[in-house]
Amino acid sequence: MNNHSVKNSVECWDCFELRLKGPNSGNPYVDITWNVTFHHESREVKVMGFYAGREEYAARFMPDEIGEWTYETSSDCIELNGVTGSFTCTASSSGNHGPVRVTHDERFAYADSTPYHPFGTTAYAWIHQPEELYTATLQTLKNNVFNKIRMCLLPKNYSFNAQEPELYPFEGAPQEGFDTSRFNPAFWDHLDRCIEALLKLGIEADIILFHPYDKGRWGFDVMGSKADDLYLRYAIARLSAYRNIWWAMANEYDFMKEMTMSDWDRLISIASNEDPHQHLLSIHNGTGMYEPGSIFMYDHTRPEITHCSIQHWDVTLVTEWRKQYGKPVIVDECGYEGNLPQRWGNLSAGEMTHRVWESFARGGYTTHGETYLHPQDEIWWAKGGALFGCSKDQIGFLRDIVDKAPNGLRPFSIPRDAPMMGIENEYYLYYYGQHQPGYREFELREDKEFIVDWIDTHKMTITTLETTYQGTCRIPLPGRPYFALRIRCKEE
Amino acid sequence: MNNHSVKNSVECWDCFELRLKGPNSGNPYVDITWNVTFHHESREVKVMGFYAGREEYAARFMPDEIGEWTYETSSDCIELNGVTGSFTCTASSSGNHGPVRVTHDERFAYADSTPYHPFGTTAYAWIHQPEELYTATLQTLKNNVFNKIRMCLLPKNYSFNAQEPELYPFEGAPQEGFDTSRFNPAFWDHLDRCIEALLKLGIEADIILFHPYDKGRWGFDVMGSKADDLYLRYAIARLSAYRNIWWAMANEYDFMKEMTMSDWDRLISIASNEDPHQHLLSIHNGTGMYEPGSIFMYDHTRPEITHCSIQHWDVTLVTEWRKQYGKPVIVDECGYEGNLPQRWGNLSAGEMTHRVWESFARGGYTTHGETYLHPQDEIWWAKGGALFGCSKDQIGFLRDIVDKAPNGLRPFSIPRDAPMMGIENEYYLYYYGQHQPGYREFELREDKEFIVDWIDTHKMTITTLETTYQGTCRIPLPGRPYFALRIRCKEE
């Protein structure tokens, strides 16, 4: 029997790893298959193992039930076959709420039922940067309120992002070419470290598996279906046991001209069928942005797609998308705060914040990004590093309001009125955007008393009105744009 | 022969009126038909006469060619039949450019080819207000830059607009009911006076003939097709000779539930076929505003419709509508600057101005309106009176820029760039809106020198850069929102 040492206790939704020594002959990424089956009472979960380099084979598993789990390996390689063991899954510690799921009522929540509202940001290639910048990025994330980050697994070749990464996911080098059937353990070890660092900060890693920003440089966007599938399965085997993983199958998938729709269908099926931990799964559009009426999106009604990850500048469409797809909606690209010459990268802070509020009030979410010109091209949206803008704080102000709201917020669809998230008779958060009413009339409950706050979403101030309101009432408003109105039932 | 005295000289595009005494028996609005045919060289134009009250029959004609015109009346009433005469049409005086037309290249221009850019405003029921308010409205128009006003012919019963008008277009009164086959001369005389006052101020009167804001009060929205046709023909006979008339067949036509689409088709055909002066003709939508993808508009491709008069809050769609309909586009309702509780009436000044600039830069136009709460409900958008907001001045600032631009501005469609109006190699006006690029790259002509201005569309300042530019160049921009960039070829 293979010698192995593992933890005998893991907390719920943490990663249990089994690591065994094994052969390094041939191509261990392809030639050897090994799986581990975990049991708990009547449950049985099978995970794919992976070759981790240095003659080590690993299998990772995220237990989701407290109690005793046993496991048994199976492999065509004798050294990896028939290994058994057990561990205890203990209650999760504070701050560990498990992975994010979609609830039956089309909202996000952690596995322990704590509501999750994505306040995402974007730093596509932050994992591909030198150590100093990597550290700076984590520091910036620590100092801000973001709880999700969109990030590419494969390196990116794009405006303001032209340097060679230090590590590649595959064996090889730009000059000699890459062997896409062999992975580079150093890269993947680094990726583990990145995801663990995010986990510590309570940040979901929205991992973009494929993207079109290669343009003939490394060839990772045109590897062919066999290599694509191998890569996807390796990513799943390697990363799925981290509870903060989300799968974004591609960014701007429709800009990858070598891929067909059936390629995407196949990859999405693999991710959905073979991810033992059933992480959130999305795919993100590129085309159709500049032609009203010709929006080109993947069929988000497919059952494998857990939520909509949409690129569009008009976030008022969140209402429509929620209705159309019956799933949570994240506008993952609506433009970024910055001053680039490119139109997608030069929104004012006020406009970025406005889009985040507008989509939130409609029951969706908009992801932050920042693209200010920088002397060393250290632009957050690409490389991470520092943030210079104002929307990060304004978004933090919104998050604070949301964190303090009662559980169970739902979007209310009110024809010809401002969008609103609330709970009937308890809590209402209206967002007025460019609208600046001088007052609004409401039908509140007669038998309750309601506290009213004016919220200046740009200046980040909350003004509580001295009067409380009940029944049919006219509530004054400041008559200035970019305000929200919060109406809270006074607790007895 | 009927005694009549008429002017023997009228300037081009002014109103020539022939007025004859005639019988008042029966219903002179219905029982008597009379027409006048005007001749100039090989031209022949037939106009409908109308009963003007006080036993007077009038016929009005707007000559459009300099020289001698003759006329001859024909009628089933002997006193109105066979009257002949002549007058001289003289050159138009300065400030009289004739009626506005649509040019072959889908722009607006006056009949003398002077470009016309609509900077419209809205005061639906201003003609129905007491004398003092009427005078205040004209004073406000005189002090501002608007060159078009949207106004209802029929009185309006709506929020902030509930008083009885002093005069009704038809004989009768609210208590006793109205006879829609008889017109009220006092009302129509007042209307003449209103249109003449606008004419003096150089303002086009965009006359809304039908609207749904009656709601059972006077019944003018449910008169039946016979009365509708009679009313329309009377309006044409009476008003068409004013060069500043535009026909807006209806406001929010689709909110008039008693009318069918074939009613609208018929009315539009009458206006198009029977208006001897062929004024601009549009119809304005109401429905479909709150459901993306379900925009419900009249078929603006119909040849009778000269331009699109659209209600929509998203003025970026101007680009699409221009393409779709091949006609000038005016977004006649996109919301109004104000602080009403109603969503359509509480845009910030900055947002109103933004929509005017955005649509202009896309080759269309957005109409101003103002809806600030007022102690006596004297809200500009309804009754006229005074303006209190800031967008009027910001729109005036744009108009000044446009007036100083060379003739021949066209919208350029630049994928993924800011919208721009310009003339190749001569003049470019880019509008950046919520976008705030730090610089932009341009390919200007090598052999010309270009002057660059930063235009702050909100603060109404123009900053001319010290450097001039030519060839491939990088032009710095202020990196703040709501700026426009003007690039002008330096004159040698």
TrEMBL record, chains A, B:
<dbReference type="Pfam" id="PF18310">
    <property type="entry name" value="DUF5605"/>
</dbReference>
<dbReference type="InterPro" id="IPR025277">
    <property type="entry name" value="Apiosidase-like_cat_dom"/>
</dbReference>
<protein>
    <submittedName>
        <fullName>DUF5060 domain-containing protein</fullName>
    </submittedName>
</protein>
<dbReference type="InterPro" id="IPR017853">
    <property type="entry name" value="GH"/>
</dbReference>
<dbReference type="Pfam" id="PF16586">
    <property type="entry name" value="DUF5060"/>
</dbReference>
<dbReference type="InterPro" id="IPR041239">
    <property type="entry name" value="DUF5605"/>
</dbReference>
<dbReference type="InterPro" id="IPR013783">
    <property type="entry name" value="Ig-like_fold"/>
</dbReference>
<feature type="domain" description="DUF5060">
    <location>
        <begin position="10"/>
        <end position="76"/>
    </location>
</feature>
<dbReference type="InterPro" id="IPR032260">
    <property type="entry name" value="DUF5060"/>
</dbReference>
<feature type="domain" description="DUF5605">
    <location>
        <begin position="417"/>
        <end position="488"/>
    </location>
</feature>
<feature type="domain" description="Apiosidase-like catalytic">
    <location>
        <begin position="107"/>
        <end position="372"/>
    </location>
</feature>
<dbReference type="Pfam" id="PF13204">
    <property type="entry name" value="Apiosidase"/>
</dbReference>
